[in-house]
Amino acid sequence: MSTTSHEPNMVLVNEEFDVVGTRPIRHDGVDKVTGRALYGADHDTVGMLHGSILRSPHAHARIVSIDTSKAEALTGVFAVVTGQDLPETNAGTMVDTGGGNVDLKYLRENILARDKALYRGHAVAAVAASSLHIANEAAALIEVEYEVLEYVGSALDGMKKDAPLLHDDLKTNELGEKTDEPSNVATHFQFSKGDLEKGFEEADVAVEREFENVTVHQGYLEPQVATALWNEDGRLHIWCSTQGSFVVRGACSKILDLPVSQIRVVPMEIGGGFGGKLDVYQEPVAALLSKKTGRAVKIVMTRADVFEGTGPAPASHIKVKIGAKKDGTITAAQAYLAYEAGAFPGSPVGAAGMTVFAAYDVENIVVDGYDVVVNKPKSAAYRAPGAPNAAFAAEQVIDEIARALEIDPIDFRLQNAAKEGTRRVDGPAYPRIGCVEVLEAMKNHPHYKSPIEGPNRGRGVGIGFWFNIGFPSSCTIMVNDDGTVNLVEGSTDIGGTRASIAMQAAEVLGIAAEDVCPTVVDTDSIGYTSFTAGSRTTFATGWAAYEAANDIKRQMIERAAKIWEVDADAVEFENGVFKSENGSTLSMNFKELAGKLGATGGPIVGRAAVNPRHAGGSFAGNIVDVEVDPETGKVEILRFTVVQDAGKAIHPSYVEGQMQGGSVQGIGWALNEEYYMDDQGRMANTSLLDYRMPTSLDVPMIDTVIVEVANPGHPYGVRGVGEANIIPTTPTIANAIHDATGLRMQRLPMNPGAIMEAAWNQRK
Amino acid sequence: MAQHGDRVRMLAGGTDLLVQLRSGALDNVNVVLDIKTIPELNEVAYDPGDGLTLGAAVPCYKIYNNREVAQAYPGLIDAASIIGGTQIQGRASLGGNLCNAAPSGDSIPAMIALGGVANVAGPHGERTVPVEEFCTGPGRNVLQQGEMLVSIHFPAPEARSGARYIRFIPRNEMDIAVAGAGVSVVLENGTITSARVSLASVAPTPLFVREAGAALVGKPATEESVKIASEIAREAATPITDMRGTTEYRKHLCEVLTRRALLTAIERAKEN
Amino acid sequence: MPTVFIPSPMRSLTGDQQTVEVEGSTVRQVFDALDQAYPGFKQRLVEDGQIKPNIAIAVDGEVTPLGMLEQVGTESEVHILSAISGG
Amino acid sequence: MPRKTQVQATINGEPMDFLCEPRQSLLEILRDIIGLTGTKEGCNDGNCGACTVILDGRVVTSCLVLGVEVEGCEITTIEGIAIGHTLHPIQQAFLENAALQCGVCTPGFIVASKALLDENPNPTEEEIRFWLANNLCRCTGYDKIVRAVQAAAATLQETTA
Lengths: 764, 272, 87, 161
Prior knowledge:
The complex is a heterotetramer. By secondary structure, chain A is α+β, with helices and mostly antiparallel strands. Chain A has 20 helices and 31 strands. By secondary structure, chain C is α+β, with helices and mostly antiparallel strands. Chain C has a single domain, classed as Beta-grasp domain (Ubiquitin-like (UB roll)), CATH 3.10.20. Helices cover about 20% and strands about 25% of the residues of chain C. Chain C has two helices and seven strands, in the order E-E-H-H-E-E-E-E-E. The longest helix of chain C is centred in the middle third of the chain and has 11 residues, at about 25-35. Chain C is globular and about 30 Å long. The N and C termini of chain C lie far apart (about 35 Å). Chain D folds into two domains: about 5-80, Roll (Ubiquitin-like (UB roll)); about 90-160, Orthogonal Bundle (DNA polymerase, domain 1), CATH 1.10.150.120. Chain D is about 35% helix and about 15% strand. Chain D has helices spanning about 25-35, 90-95, 105-120, 125-130, 145-160, and strands spanning about 5-10, 15-20, 50-55, 60, 75. In chain D, strands 2-1-5-3-4 form a five-stranded mixed sheet, sandwiched between helices. Classes of the chains: A alpha+beta, B alpha+beta, C alpha+beta, D alpha+beta. Chains A and D meet through helix 1 and helix 18 of A and helix 2, helix 3, helix 4 and helix 5 of D.
């Protein structure tokens, strides 16, 4: 295997700060290396019961009857619930849970099936018992009579005229217009600019290919878990593992028909999410069981539950056609995107349509997107949702054209790269972006300059774009008399954001990162804060911390003015020191002034609630070298370099961590990960042995280059870095495999068997 | 043990048993006997003359951490050091691997190649069963009610002998063999005097391909000879298509793995 | 005047025009003006005075959380998108 | 309900006894009975390594050990790694090298790494990757974890040299 890093990690710094850009030890670090940090499953309360969920063994079946009597009779069982315990709704009632608009009927039916089980693993009933073992035994005693129905296994099958319908009330939506006939196609959209025909006429080369992505999972190590206590005073308390405590509050409020004021969500430490812990699953079920029993109820998913009962990233069928002139100008691009929504509408096909050609400045584009329901778990977000599937297609076609034109693949991308002012196919023109800078950093990297030698070896490159988002965040900061501050925020810390948020406050106040004590609190204790997702937390909650710190700075200046008996505008604050010219120079540093607050008017609290707009998108690129065993088809990653525009890396170590983590998830996605479905629409590989995520032995060191093209929309120029890094990986590895073998892999995963098959077919 | 009949299972490392119990695959089982405490099942007795007697419950790491055994039976170490990962190897035993009788059990072809013989004890006394006859189907073995596997005996390695087990997996560790090949050869001035070939994951049980070994006897230890034997191995394999690979792909791997394993075994034999 | 970019599925309403300029200093006013010029426009996008759930409005390249209340400048660009899920 | 057995074992140097059902795993005992929740559950079938503990000197996944099996055994969990009030060099190295993101796999990696360095004080990168292949991490891509173990090995050798 390939080992050791080839190049030191690089940070192409654009602006220096005192705290921002340094690498302090994260504030929650000690708790997490000693085992003291409390995650969802670690929560325990007096008299707590354990819940177990019975799931559908069928991909598509009508629920004829449910008999819970045997389960209820078992000693140690306290309650059983089914879909009938949730309020009934008609389709078309759209609600905003804070995670976007969804149909309440579908939202509820995904928690507990009502008339139909729509996927293998669909929750059908649940039990609360004195121990998990008893709860599991009881769940197995629930008798469900099913009428098994023909299932829809893929988007293309679901779009067929004679396909079985998942929902009789679902009609195709086209930008506000609905078709009359029920269909499995929930949405069709089209983006277009310029004149596609004209564009292809101008082209000297045109390449069209079809690509298949299979279903994959985020693979967070901590299974979903929730404990609910529906108190006698009517208030519902939920301790859970979530990327967004306020989103859980919002969703449970709608699902259970309970005002948000009656719900308190306590976000425990979270064991990974990658988009998969935005939706609620067992939270409302635990709540129903708690209401029936008057006791706290904890439900922890098994790994199989996680695979079959939570939202994976969708499979898709994609067609991409791109045309270019001999001189290397791309003249036209077209994409057809059919994405699996899973059992209920809402795949990320919209984002796929906006990002598929987002890295390129192309005059003539048409993109058609279809959101199709199939008998699989409702798809959920996964790191740049929708974009990696589209990139697997587009970046391979780009590679093929560059080869046809005999232009270096990075030069070809540079020649057509999106820039400030470039209009995306969905309309908006880019603000300042770092596409060109990322490509140049790739071109200048020693990895790209080094030769690739030896038989069966090849090199690939690829790039990807992700929007990132703003959304609301709140922050409160209290000044302590020892000159430290306590920072209170509501963003679940999934990868070091306590540090990256605290550092932005420290920068404003001229104190050390260690002098800020950040705490993530429950939904009763902080203003509304959107989820930890969309690469938004360091950007948006960091911005809230920046504003709250400035609120403190303003009040501290007033206090200094009061002490010195001067006007507030005569007081300056620089590098942590308050100064005033009043004959002689008066000065106090932050700590000194903090010590005087009690005697000069009392405590100072800073606060801010923000809803920032200009998130500033991020581009990422990969350079990958592989070796393919010609006898087994096994791909070894010899060398991997990831480049990403971070705008400004607040804590470079954790930015590198995001880039390395996204890259290795991409490697798993490219080479081995898939929901292997049997002929009954059931996932056959529901363990971490058979769902092959990369181990430490499967990957080399991941070399990183952080590019800093400041985002004009953020005080420190931050661009979110959580997502873009995974987008280029699958096509880059495919391009490297092609370089090594001449095989153009059009289906994921590119596992050894698939590569040998492709090799045999090529010889035929 | 007798009194519980087929409702009892032996617990050694438990790395398969506990998973099967939780999955509900063994709903009839309601008694688990921890046999790790029985001395005979933990013995590792090696004698250059008599060979190796390996207690059925000896965990993998105790096998590959044993210098003498590692020296004498590198082909066994090949398997013991790739079963599961570090933590699994702290518990999993070759005896357990054999009794579990999975077609993919990595150590079984290695043991067959080395001519291992299972020592079985039961209410009607003791008996021995060659490893290649131990497994009777997926998850099924020759043990009768009340019988248990005590140990496995391997003959002392002959001069100029070499063995090798390799498997193919998509990951580099923590994986189930798509196919595997365990082989052994004995050389006499460049000629193969005896050879054994066995395959994993390509039949209802680990497969002993007697004819592949036979084809090598009397042949020079060359790539050409090896090629012939590995073609026979490919033809002998009867794999199914499942999530781990297609029939065609697995048969192809049998040829590749047998060839690669034999070439290494020959190198090892020359060094002996 | 603000420029509204018409998505292809709605260009039947505007006689295939890809962009339209109309008066208005908020999204609401812009849509009212559009509906005057091209009847049926508003009913495609608006429900009970709100932007329809599966539609997102971007002003100057940023999807607005304010919907109909969003301010629009004389040089502004207004885009009509299908709302993206997840993030 | 199955009858419970009394089991005595030494956990993080402290003699303890507990009652457990035959079907309860060591992982359940540690977390639910004794309250040592630093040991995590990620898969409950031995494939993620989050529940790694040291059992009589050998790393095992505690989900694949029955509580009744540990009678008379010595067990070290993540809570027993720090030396009194001082972090173990491996814990310190994980902090300094930013070798954790969500942190849920971290206890398993630290316990497994300690067992590695106890046995092999100066492992190569490949030896580290091979030893840790039974521990899955989905956040970091392993790069910083491997570097942390290398750094800890260096520190430990200085202090023992």
